[in-house]
Amino acid sequence: MEIPQQRVSQNTSGRPRDLMVAFKSNVIKSSIYNKKKSLKGTGVIIKENHSITSELG
Known about the structure:
Layout: H1 2-38, H2 50-56
């Protein structure tokens, strides 16, 4: 009886964390995308991730 209860508690405590991490990463990506859009044509390179510099470069 104890093992399934532990599994359930682990699942319920792990899901909101994953959602928050995904939500934060999406917010960061959208803010970086908006910065890139607003700085397009100015020659400014945003160096926050390697993928962003490779996209701009």
